[in-house]
Write a sequence for this structure.
């Protein structure tokens, strides 16, 4: 976790999970402790740790998203003061999910908060807040923060294929085949450059592999030097990969095939085998298996 991300989480963790209020800052009905959240928001936007700490009971507790417990009003004040000094200019918004009384003088509120930095970066945290009534005043007794689960990045979805990066040479083929595989666009895609024959004299192709978030699957798009192109879906089968491909030939006819890629356990070679192949409505013979070995 970077310092910037950690600090954003730290600030957003000490947020009351209350409603998103309109500009006139009216407290929502049915929540007698909402005025505390209004005061918290004003103090937070002003970067005033003393005013924020005063909204807590003396022995208040904050459990942050890492499970660390900050006990007592003074400890919470110190954490906030340090955070505000390190990252001034942040503002806060709130969203409420539920307010439930646990007794005459105790409320449980669940919801979330959004902290926005001067650069526009936004960070969301889920919070459970316990309010306690002291005399005629409501104060914060405990805040428990839960950081939302982060969505896997497109780059991380390709982690099972990273071992392919490098240069490979195909064996047992009519023409020599060389593959050069590298990452592109911040690691969100893998690029395969194919060269058939020595120095690509038999043609070249470029394949782009990426993660399709809408379909929740790995896909690839291939374009060859003769004007043909194809699209394939990739499905992991243990360590192996199954590819189902549909193509358009340069003359406009269509084709399809299924490929199986099987890596060796040492990561230094893999085999490719193609079957159920057809082009322009004509069945094509089985392909391979072709063994590819890493080029040092």
């Amino acid at each position: 976790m970077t310092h910037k991300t950690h600090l954003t989480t730290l600030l957003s963790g000490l947020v009351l999970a209350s409603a998103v209020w309109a500009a006139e800052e009216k407290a929502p009905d049915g929540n007698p402790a909402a005025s505390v959240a209004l005061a918290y928001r004003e103090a937070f936007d002003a970067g005033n740790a003393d005013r924020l700490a005063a909204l807590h009971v003396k022995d208040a507790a904050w459990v942050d998203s890492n499970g660390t417990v900050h006990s007592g009003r003074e400890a919470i004040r110190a954490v906030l003061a340090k955070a505000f000094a390190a990252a001034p200019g942040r503002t806060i918004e709130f969203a409420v999910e539920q307010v439930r009384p646990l007794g005459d003088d105790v409320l449980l509120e669940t919801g979330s908060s959004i902290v926005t930095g001067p650069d526009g970066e936004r960070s969301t945290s889920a919070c459970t807040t316990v309010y306690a009534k002291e005399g005629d005043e409501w104060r914060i007794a405990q805040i428990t923060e839960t950081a939302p689960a982060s969505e896997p990045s497109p780059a991380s979805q390709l982690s099972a294929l990273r071992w392919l990066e490098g240069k490979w040479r195909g064996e047992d083929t009519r023409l020599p085949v060389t593959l050069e595989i590298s990452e592109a666009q911040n690691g969100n895609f893998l690029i395969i450059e194919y060269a058939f024959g020595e120095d690509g004299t038999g043609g070249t192709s470029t394949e782009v592999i990426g993660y399709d978030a809408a379909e929740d699957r790995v896909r690839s798009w291939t374009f060859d030097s003769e004007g043909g192109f194809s699209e394939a879906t990739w499905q992991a089968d243990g360590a192996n990969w199954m590819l189902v491909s549909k193509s358009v030939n340069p003359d406009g006819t269509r084709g399809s095939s299924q490929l199986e890629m099987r890596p060796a356990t040492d990561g230094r070679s893999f085999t490719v085998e193609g079957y159920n192949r057809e082009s322009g409505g004509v069945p094509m013979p089985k392909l391979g298996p072709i063994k590819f070995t890493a080029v040092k």
